[in-house]
Amino acid sequence: MRSFLETYGTAVAGLALTLFFVAFAPNFAAPTNLLNVLKETSFLAILAIGFTLALITSELDLSVAEVASLAAVVTGALIQAGQSSLLAVAAGLLVAFGAGLFNGIAVTRLKVPSLIATLGTAAIAKGFAFMITQGVAFVGRWPAEFTGIARGSMLGLPNLVIWLALVAGGALFLVKCTRTGVHMTATGEADEAARLAGIATGRMKRLGLALSGLLAGVTAVLLTASLSSAAPNMAGDYFLYAIAAVLLGMTMFEPGRANVPGTLVAALTLKVLGNGLVLMGAAYYVQDIVLGLIIIVSVALSATALKKAAFKL
Amino acid sequence: MAPVLSLRGIEKSYGAVAALKGIDLDIGRGEVLAICGDNGAGKSSLVRIISGAQEPSAGAITLDGRTVSFRSPQDALAKGIATIYQDLALAPRLSIVQNVFMGAELTRPLLPFVHILDKRRMEELAKGYLGRLSVAVEDMHRPVERLSGGQRQAVAISRALHWDAQVVIMDEPTAALGVKETALVLDLIRKLNAEGRTVVLISHNMADVTAVATRVAILKSGRKVIDRPVAGLDADGLAHMVMTGKES
Ligand SMILES: Nc1ncnc2c1ncn2[C@@H]1O[C@H](COP(=O)(O)OP(=O)(O)OP(=O)(O)O)[C@@H](O)[C@H]1O
Ligand SMILES: [Mg+2]
């Protein structure tokens, strides 16, 4: 059996960190601050859960942030052009899903390693995003029905948190309770064995990457609705955070394997950390340094699956 | 008795290399057939054809008297022929249950049109299969990387039991194993055979062959040179035949 420390060590560290900030960071425990941390976590966690689903099939998706930015400006452009919110959201999601599927096809059919293929897609998405906006951000008036997607609350819970719960619950159900999810896991764990067992491994990889794209789209819609703006680089800051969340998540619950609960707890931990550091007066660049350290240490600790995905060039 | 599986005129070439040159082979129901031969004789090529992993360049396969062609290992499995590949077939970090049911997971209805994995039933069945093979592992959730080599073979064989395969093909199942583990695997083969299943065993180990096989086919340079009962043979005699390609 794995030791308690091996399975829950970093999760407990995250909890300890939270308690530390509760005790020592001014205003950390204020309800409005906690609520903000939770909302910030939703964007990050949804994006990172997408990355997780791709990595479960042993493929990296380095395009999530750029794809999210592209989906945001597509949605923004349509709304600013007077199209209905429904159409704009559907188009944003479709573009993101399409980008994910494109990644999947590049990886499984054209045999381009995901590290390279998704990096290429990131550049393409970035190019299109700047093309659509001509480099400026969409601001201006946004219909309430659109901003309400992210801003309102239901039954006392912020909508963002409800969206996160739905995405996390759905992803967890997929991975743990359905045949498809188990086939994705088997594909990531042992490609050849899975193929010999009759699992459509190529299809599972395409699904993982397509879902990663789709969730980048969901993140984009929520970000745009929440901020009332859409800019061609708006999700850029989430890139390192998303990777760090997945990698840190791989150190807990199912060490060495990308897993949804780990990603969720890790995303929350990272946002708590960022928020706590700011409240304690740390300079803005400290966050980046800490993030970099977390990425490296997490991989050193247990992220063998990532090493596999990254180095099968 | 009519053979379960017959091969007629099987040929296989890889570009200019002719790996199999017209193999005729009948595999009788309930026998343990050993396929022997030097390195490069064509054993694996033959097994890949029977198991659906590759198609022959020429020749015909009949299963229970009907001509068949296997599109994939999965297709062959569905038709009752399971192959146990030496080390490729298991996912080391996944559990025993997940490995036994890989690609053939059981589900139960949750809502109309929504089926979820039936984890409890799979666990019970996996336990049952290992029990039938007299392998005692308590925890069905243990990753197979934490099992011994023989126990891993048992997990792979459990998969064949789950599919109720009539023919089980094993390519060098004892190659990487110590004495005790080898004995366990030979025992697994006897248990499979006792259930009436046909076993095709590829082996370089003549002692294994004389211990469990009822018949032996020897390949040499892509041809079947010897096909005879094992009774009356010892390991040395067999080794001599593999080397010379002639009955002594
Ligand atoms: N994929 C392939 N491409 C080209 N040649 C191959 C391929 N597979 C096998 N061969 C050749 O076909 C011949 C038979 O090989 P095969 O692997 O069937 O032999 P084997 O009896 O299983 O040998 P071993 O005891 O070493 O496992 C050899 O000459 C081998 O080099
Ligand atoms: Mg071989």
From TrEMBL, chain A:
Pfam families given in the database record: BPD_transp_2
The keyword Transcription appears for this protein: no
Residues passing through the membrane, by range: 7-29, 41-57, 87-108, 115-137, 157-175, 207-226, 238-256, 263-283, 289-306
Membrane topology according to the record: Multi-pass membrane protein
Superkingdom to which the source organism belongs: Bacteria
Keyword Transmembrane helix recorded: yes
Keyword tags: Cell membrane, Membrane, Transmembrane, Transmembrane helix
Location of this chain's protein in the cell: Cell membrane
Predominant place of localization: membrane
Name of protein: Monosaccharide ABC transporter membrane protein, CUT2 family (TC 3.A.1.2.-)
The species this protein was found in: Chelatococcus sambhunathii
From TrEMBL, chain B:
NAD recorded as keyword: no
Ranges where the ABC transporter domain occurs: 5-246
Family, similarity comment: Belongs to the ABC transporter superfamily.
SUPFAM superfamilies reported in the protein's UniProt record: P-loop containing nucleoside triphosphate hydrolases
Any GO MF annotation of the entry: ATP binding
Name by which UniProt lists this protein: Monosaccharide ABC transporter ATP-binding protein, CUT2 family (TC 3.A.1.2.-)
Record key words, sorted: ATP-binding, Nucleotide-binding
Species: Chelatococcus sambhunathii
Superkingdom in the source lineage: Bacteria
